[in-house]
Amino acid sequence: MRIMIVDDEREIREFLAAMSGWREIGCEVAWTAANGEEALGLLLQGELPDVIITDIRMPVMDGITFAERVRQRYPDMPIIFLTAYHEFDYARQAVKLGVSDFLTKPFLPEELTRTVATLRVHEPLLAGWREHDRFFELLASEKHSSAYKQEWLQAQGLRDGSFILLYAELDAPRAVEGEHFPFAAAHVRGQLEAAAGRSGLQGRTASAASGIYLFVPLREGAAAAEREQLMTFAKEIAGEGRFSFSFARELSLSVGISQSFSSFCQLPEALKQVKRCMEYRMLLGKNSVVAYDALESFLSEKEKETDASLSLIADALRQADPEPIRSLLKDSYRSMLSVGASKKEMQHYAIGVIEKAETALADFGIRPSHGISVDIREKLIHAVLLTDIMKELEKQLLAYQELMRQEIQESPLQVIANVRKLIREQFAEDLTLQSVAQKLNVNYSYLSRLIKKETGTNFTDMLWDYRIEAAKNKLLREDMRSYEVAYAVGFKDTAHFSFMFKKKVGLSPSAYRAQVRGGNGAGEL
């Protein structure tokens, strides 16, 4: 099998082309291109690849446009998309184009070669899948009228009737940082289709951004039994450890099931229902089965109770203890579980908490960087489970609390207290205003002005005052000569020490010792 790789980053193209795994599955990379336009030019030269692997985001001509052009000229050409997990819109377009498979980034080299090998295994199914994709694309469209859809069904020799839609979705692309969970659509689709067949379910499948749809027509008079059969099947494939996809490790799936519909033309509504099921899935955790019938009756009784908790955020941030924040989030978590809030409602609440926290920070003149502010919102929006939202929320609130604590601690009086503490602990060392400012992570000029404003003196005088006080103690408590005391308290010049001591105390060091001890003040230095 000969492969074409299309990617705008030269390093990635060269890396993918040079992977040793290609030889192991009987493949070779015969063409590479930097964008769709260049790749089209190579295709028009004559010999065609057996499969095309292309990135989506590229300059000049992106992967979507490239795939559209390829489909026009070579309708049966297998295409694999490389896509970021969050590029759902692109992935949906890929499905409409009949792309054979798409792999989510980041992925390991062996995952790409495994995807190509899987594509070869499922190649006999591709023609049938393309027919299924056309079925979904037309009936799922809200642009076409029911009459148009009915005519299309008749033209295809298909009889309209009742159906149920099942949607199996990956719980997460990556469980933790560093773990790779590729979504190889063809492989998952083939496995799901085979499992449905073994369970006696016949239907059409279609790939989505992170899962597979299974459209199951219902026989007249057998709808209840087939629905029960579908529920059993859903529990089997969602049951942890029961449904392996033959990757490096098992994938975690959750399943949403629509209500029964009387006409194929109602597919758009069924799609909305399974999407709603997936939003509620975040409350239940991984490996969940959510039926819309049960969901609808439960959600009709829900109530939102979030305003009170939002008002407590600012108070919790101002406390040094992280426990009030954790307690508040635990209460909110229980409340959302009890009322069955939707995914959008939960995300709205979480972003509201962040906004409230940032308002509290602004009261202290603290404004998180734009990058931090955007990053937490993206994490909350892309979170799959409620537990993921709460973890990200707690992490960010504790970080904001630390910013608040530092701001309160670094108020002018606290800064002066920190300066005094440094002098007290390190007066015998070579302390300068610059070194102290660096240690306290404050601006040198600001610190100089602040010391003058708050103490009426400058840093050098503060340091000398402390050194002289320390020298007085040593002169009285320790049997040291005056020059030894000078060096012990940080003076490098004994003459300077004697000058500063007499200036501050009114006596020379020896005279001070003699006077306090009752001596005559002789023996100066």
TrEMBL record:
The keyword Acetylation does not apply. SUPFAM superfamilies: CheY-like, Homeodomain-like. Residues 417-515 form the HTH araC/xylS-type domain. GO terms for biological process: phosphorelay signal transduction system. The keyword Transcription applies. Keywords: DNA-binding, Phosphoprotein, Transcription, Transcription regulation. This is Response regulator. It comes from Paenibacillus albus.
